[in-house]
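User: Hi! I'm working on a homework problem where we have to compare a predicted structure to a textbook description. Could you give me the structure for the chain below?
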Amino acid sequence: MSWLVRITVPTQSVEAVSSKFWDAGTTGVAELPDPAGSEERVLLVAGFESESDADSAAHLLADTHGDATVEALDPSAWEGPPVTEISLAGTVLRIDAQHAFGHGQHPTTQLVIDTLLALVGHDSSFLDIGTGSGVLAIAAKKLGAGRVIAVDNDPTAIESAIRNAQTNNASIEVTDTGLSELLSDNDPFDLVVANMLLADLRPLAGAISPLVGETLVLSGFLEEQADEVVELFAPLLPVSRLDRDGWVCVVLR
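Assistant: Happy to help. Predicted structure tokens:
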């Protein structure tokens, strides 16, 4: 049996609340649309192995972020977000995220897809770091990329990305290979994408930069964090930026 903690927070609090979940020992945090339909709020769902850990996390958040609900869950009974359909340059992607991040509805995913429409070159090499459900890697392949590698360290994400690639008839490589091993086995990639929270991006910046042959697309962070993100990847320079609902996508070269 697993335990879930659910809490709805403003988009600007996602980073802080997610960090508290990780400090409390979560096994993973899913970021989902607000059930009430608000574009300014996000539902965070964190998993825990014990009821006591879940209760502790809920109490930790109650003081500063409002009420959180704790519930028992049989993991096999949770299907995750519904299958989503994403229109993409004359085709439709069907994404079944289940337990993995990347249901396709989050503003950061939409921002990156909008950015890829202008950046993916025919037969260009593409690397998706922290692929989750594989949606961005699949989108790049459908837009004409050549070799596409999707990497994640979560076994659930690996399974999800492989399944979604098969569903969408997208020939991509899905792997849990570390970034340093990727660099030793491959030339730098024409286009690298990392869509993840700033807390996850910070420790990876030094390993990501050498993998960039030409262009780096970054998202998953809030407007007020954009300057820090750009600084992390100097001397790469920002060339464009998109904003939506408090979230940001930046392109560096």
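For your comparison, note the following. The radius of gyration is 18 Å. Residues 74-78 have pLDDT under 50 and may be disordered. Good luck with the assignment!
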